[in-house]
Amino acid sequence: MRKPFIAGNWKMHKTIEEAVALARELGAALDGVAGCDVAVCPPFPALAAVREALAGSVIGLGAQNVHWEEQGAFTGAVSPRMLEGLCDYVIVGHSERRTLFGESDEMVNKKLHAALAHGLKPILCVGENLEQNQAGETAEFVGGQVRAAFDGITAEQARIVTVAYEPLWAIGTGMPATGEGANTIIRGTVRGTLAVLYGDDVAQAIRIQYGGSVKPGNIVEFMAQPEIDGALVGGASLRAADFVAIVKEALRAKK
Questions:
Q1: Which of 49, 92, 187, 192 has the maximum number of C-beta atoms within 10 A of its C-beta?
Q2: pLDDT tens figures, 142-183
Q3: Catalytic amino acids?
Q4: Pick from 181, 180, 202: which is nearest to 191 by CA?
């Protein structure tokens, strides 16, 4: 049985001091929580301080992005070598990186390879926009993203990756997908594509999150679905009470 996994993406929010305060509050509130993996992904400047603040807690630490080169003349970029030993997870291919910063499927694939080579556990984001969804192109587009991202990734490596299905039209809009709708895409397209690539055993072992306007009031709807193993949480992860409630409700739903 796949272990639930709730991750918070803090995006470009929180100063170092604010991030530390939130991390400490979350660590205390989730003390003793078991049966669910939990992680937070603060901005790069806060990673080291948040790591220290989370020491001894059940909460893992993730970065929001990574470059595929180990070093070089890439102003503003952060390499996997720099993250190695600093954090546990790294978000790869988030829709905001794809749409706002022009990241291609090829770049996402390079980042996935680099993260895995340095012992980081990637959270790979895939998802369609509203026009693609309404045109019935979700399966073709999302399936293509999955195939491109996993190109050259071995079955053993694939088991380490968490996939986050985040329809772009649901991110930050307050209009999430339905649990049933997300489950259908995850089962048929995301896990279905992974099964074609690696076989059903590997596909069934890979955790797949839902992301897009997740909050305490709807997390149970998603976690009650058999193919949804957790959530990549945006705005609600910035509020300790909301994120803690999401984790606890997710655990309750899976039990």
A1: 92
A2: 999 999 999 999 999 999 999 999 999 888 888 889 999 999
A3: 94, 166
A4: 202
